[in-house]
Design a protein that fits this description.
Blueprint: E1 5-24, E2 30-51, E3 56-61, H1 69-81, E4 85-92, H2 103-119, H3 125-135, E5 147-152, E6 156-160, E7 167-172, H4 179-186, H5 192-208, H6 216-221, H7 226-233, H8 235-246, E8 252-254, E9 261-265, H9 268-277, E10 282-287, H10 291-301, E11 306-307, E12 314-315
Parallel strand pairs: 3-4
Antiparallel strand pairs: 1-2, 2-4, 2-5, 5-6, 7-9, 7-10, 8-9, 11-12
Helix pairs in contact: 1-2, 1-3, 2-3, 7-8
The chain binds cytidine-5'-monophosphate.
Cytidine-5'-monophosphate is lined by residues 29-30, 32, 136-138, 153-154, 179-180, 183.
């Protein structure tokens, strides 16, 4: 059989710069308008791929459970390529879990991007997107990276120009919040009357990203619809937000359905000052990772196996 092929991947976290939930859809999901942003916080995945007669997927390291999404991602992408292989995945978590940072989704997307390159197979981006959406609502975004507007259940993505390398801090309180429970709690607050206002205000926020002010106004005026219900259940998170505001964060906002709260600062010095004066369980310095940088990270991670400057990464082994 062929030589094993190896790669070390960095699966970045995301924050939601804005998140509006419009209403429940006939399929049970909720209709969203959101802005995703990749940030510098990451998980690490070591992949070893070897063609074999029968498929075997082995997961080691952190969260090596049978139901881990990266195992499902590996199985789905191998199946789609009609390749059987022995795949070893070793996960090292750097992204807090249940925090609204998309760690599990990013890990799954990383596997979708890397395995075709290691296998020497090309999968069209539309196929990758479909596989990603089947794995979870946040997974497709991590095939794109940078800043992006998402609609529908979060899987319909429109890239937005990079907002620059902003600095901030992220407070992970240790609370793990179930996304499904958060949506259920939000349900009674959603009215058809408020939907239209949310769409207009979301649009004006996204438009302001291109207004020539570096997106400053938009970033400040954004919101997260989950904050009201989640802060009511977990007042500690509201107090973290207040603390970040007192330290000069603009904005200070919860990401996804919680529980992490991020604060953005004018410059790195301010972010570091805030980092030092906050004494929560886990506080991380973060910076935005734009799409160009996101792709450069990927090409670097796969340089032994992928051609450069093609997105999604394409294998050198394709025949
Ligand atoms: O898609 P994902 O598996 O990540 O979603 C987890 C849960 O979050 C869903 O089962 C659903 O309850 C809720 N959800 C939703 N609307 C969305 C995304 C997620 O109701 N747009």
């Amino acid at each position: 059989m062929s030589e094993p092929r190896r790669a070390r991947l960095r699966a970045l976290a995301k924050i939601n710069l804005d998140l509006r939930v419009l209403g429940r859809r006939p399929d049970g999901y909720h209709e969203l308008r959101t802005v995703f942003q990749t940030i510098s916080l990451a998980d690490r995945i070591d992949v070893c791929f070897e063609k074999a007669r029968t498929t075997r997927i082995e997961l080691a390291g952190d969260l090596a459970t049978p139901d881990n999404l990266i195992r499902k991602a590996a199985a789905a992408v191998l199946d789609s390529m009609r390749v059987s292989a022995r795949v070893e995945l070793r996960l090292k978590k750097g992204i807090p879990i249940g925090a609204g940072l998309g760690g599990g989704s990013s890990d799954a997307a990383a596997v979708l991007l890397a395995l075709p390159v290691l296998a020497g197979t090309h999968l069209d981006v539309s196929i990758l997107m479909k596989l990603a959406a089947q794995l979870g609502s946040d997974v497709p975004f991590f095939l794109l990276g940078g800043t992006a507007v998402a609609m529908g259940r979060g899987t319909e993505l429109y890239p937005v120009a990079d907002l620059g390398r902003r600095q901030g801090i992220l407070v992970a309180s240790g609370l793990s919040i179930s996304t499904a429970a958060a949506y259920a709690a939000l349900g009674p607050c959603l009215t058809s009357e408020s939907q239209e206002n949310k769409i207009f205000s979301f649009q004006s926020q996204v438009w302001s990203y291109t207004a020539g002010t570096g997106g400053e106004t938009g970033l400040r005026q954004g919101r997260n619809d989950f904050e009201t219900v989640i802060f009511e259940q977990f007042p500690k998170l509201a107090s973290i937000q207040r603390k970040l505001r007192r330290l000069g964060a603009l904005p200070a906002r919860m990401t996804g359905s919680g529980s992490a709260v991020f604060g953005l600062f004018e410059n790195r010095a301010e972010a570091i000052r805030a980092l030092e004066s906050i004494r929560e369980e886990r506080v991380f310095p973060i910076s935005f990772v734009g799409r160009r940088q996101f792709r450069a990270l990927w090409w670097r991670a796969l340089r032994a196996h992928a051609q450069e400057n093609i997105w999604p990464p394409r294998s050198r082994y394709e025949r």
